[in-house]
């Protein structure tokens, strides 16, 4: 680089920065597509629609939720990774994004490079729920499972899903053997749970709490490090006799990896503003989700740490989704 070319380069950089800033300030000018990697009725779908509705009011443009289920959420994630970095294609996803980084050997995207964490929404424990089984406590559940290996069939949203890995972790800590029945989403699995085709699920509170409160399902424990405010009468799995068990999956908004810092910041500010709304926080709390806003940099640190942590757990359990 010659001394004469340096001013031209600096001017170019300044123009690029100014253009990115102007784009972020005017954004959005048309509807935004919000990908949901699972079938309607699951926890991610519920969170995306609740948050998306309020976000559309703040941004002044419609948020169009699109359910693109399949392959544990990797189909929608690949679509996001290949989308234009203009802020008009986003995705709401839970901690399954982290699991997939180790579950699949040949992902068409790099989780830490091609996807950018934009805004953390919150976290929720799972609830261990049963239907046809005459079981009212975790002890009874584990005693029955040990006396009848493989007799309890549990549903999940697919191999490597939140409902699968959380139950595999429980089995590994309790020396029990259950039968896994994977579905193409937690919504269909819940339908079969209530119909008696499977006997149990360990699934996020937003997906099951309405059925628990209506009496269609019985919850016997939750998976977090402390009791859930939505179901405070239920003990945690650790409290009920499985020390060391803790599983509290998070939810967040993501964009393509090349999304500009200005648009990431713009979206982070808008989502956090929405999450500060008392009515929305109450609505999510009723679903069992505790809102926890954070800046995008901190969310990115969480994502990197969880990719490493859950990668080890998945390898130790020997689970593959291919």
Secondary structure layout plus pairing:
Layout: H1 5-26, E1 32-36, H2 43-59, E2 63-67, H3 74-81, E3 89-94, H4 96-103, E4 115-123, E5 126-130, H5 138-147, E6 153-156, H6 162-174, E7 179-182, H7 186-195, E8 200-204, H8 205-214, E9 218-222, E10 250-256, H9 261-275, H10 278-286, E11 290-291, H11 296-317
Parallel strand pairs: 1-2, 1-3, 6-7
Antiparallel strand pairs: 3-10, 4-10, 4-11, 5-8, 5-9
Helix pairs in contact: 2-8, 2-9, 4-11
Number of strands: 11
Low-confidence stretches: 9-20
Let me know the largest β-sheet.
6 strands, mixed
Structural class from helices and strands?
alpha/beta
Please give the CATH class of the largest domain: Alpha Beta
Mean pLDDT: 90
**Which geometry do the CA atoms define?**
globular
CATH homologous superfamily label of the largest domain: Bordetella uptake gene, domain 1
CATH topology of the largest domain: the name is D-Maltodextrin-Binding Protein, domain 2
> What is the beta-strand fraction?
15-25%
Which strand order does the major sheet show? Answer: 2-1-3-10-4-11
The CATH architecture designation of the largest domain is 3-Layer(aba) Sandwich
**Alpha carbon gap, first and last residue:** 49 Å
User: Count of DSSP helices?
Assistant: 11
Compute the CA-based radius of gyration: 21 Å
- Helical content stands at 40-55%
Number of domains: 2
Commentary on this structure:
With 322 residues, the protein is an alpha/beta fold. The protein has two domains: 28-123 and 249-317, D-Maltodextrin-Binding Protein, domain 2 (3-Layer(aba) Sandwich), CATH 3.40.190; 126-222, Periplasmic binding protein-like II (D-Maltodextrin-Binding Protein, domain 2), CATH 3.40.190.10. 45% of the residues lie in helices and 18% in strands. The chain has eleven helices and eleven strands. It has helices at residues 5-26, 43-59, 74-81, 96-103, 138-147, 162-174, 186-195, 205-214, 261-275, 278-286, 296-317; strands at 32-36, 63-67, 89-94, 115-123, 126-130, 153-156, 179-182, 200-204, 218-222, 250-256, 290-291. A six-stranded mixed beta sheet has the order 2-1-3-10-4-11, sandwiched between helices. Strands 8-5-9 form a three-stranded antiparallel beta sheet. Strands 6-7 form a two-stranded parallel ribbon. Helix 2 packs across helix 8, helix 2 crosses helix 9 (261-275) and helix 4 (96-103) packs across helix 11 (296-317). The longest helix is centred in the first third of the chain and has 22 residues, at 5-26. The N and C termini lie far apart (49 Å). The model is unreliable at 9-20 (pLDDT under 50).
């Amino acid at each position: 680089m010659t001394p004469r070319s340096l001013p031209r380069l600096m001017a170019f950089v300044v123009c690029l920065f100014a253009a990115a800033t102007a784009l972020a300030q005017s954004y959005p000018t048309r509807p935004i597509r919000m990908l949901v990697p699972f079938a309607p009725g699951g926890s991610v779908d519920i969170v995306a629609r609740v948050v998306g509705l309020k976000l559309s009011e703040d941004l002044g443009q419609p948020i169009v939720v699109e359910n693109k289920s399949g392959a544990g959420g990797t189909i929608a994630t690949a679509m996001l990774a290949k989308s234009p970095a203009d802020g008009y294609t986003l995705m709401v996803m839970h901690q399954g994004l982290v699991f997939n980084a180790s579950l699949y050997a040949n992902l068409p995207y790099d989780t830490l490079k091609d996807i950018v964490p934009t805004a953390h929404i919150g976290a929720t424990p799972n609830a261990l729920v049963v239907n046809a089984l005459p079981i009212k406590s975790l002890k009874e559940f584990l005693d029955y499972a040990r006396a009848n290996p493989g007799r309890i069939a549990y549903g999940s949203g697919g191999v490597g899903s939140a409902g699968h890995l959380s139950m595999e972790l429980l089995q590994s800590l309790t020396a029990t053997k259950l039968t896994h029945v994977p579905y193409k989403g937690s919504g269909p699995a819940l339908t079969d749970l209530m119909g008696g085709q499977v006997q149990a699920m360990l699934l996020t509170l937003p997906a099951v709490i309405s059925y628990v409160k209506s009496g269609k399902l019985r919850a016997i424990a939750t998976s977090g490090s402390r009791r859930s405010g939505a179901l405070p009468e239920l003990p945690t799995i650790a409290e009920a006799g499985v020390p060391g068990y803790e599983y509290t999956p998070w939810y967040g908004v993501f964009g393509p990896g090349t999304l500009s810092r200005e648009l990431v910041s713009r979206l982070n500010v808008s989502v956090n503003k929405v999450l500060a709304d008392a009515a929305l926080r109450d609505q999510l709390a009723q679903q069992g989700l505790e809102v926890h806003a954070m800046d995008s940099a901190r969310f990115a640190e969480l994502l990197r740490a969880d990719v490493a942590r859950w990668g080890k757990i998945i390898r130790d359990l020997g689970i593959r989704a291919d």
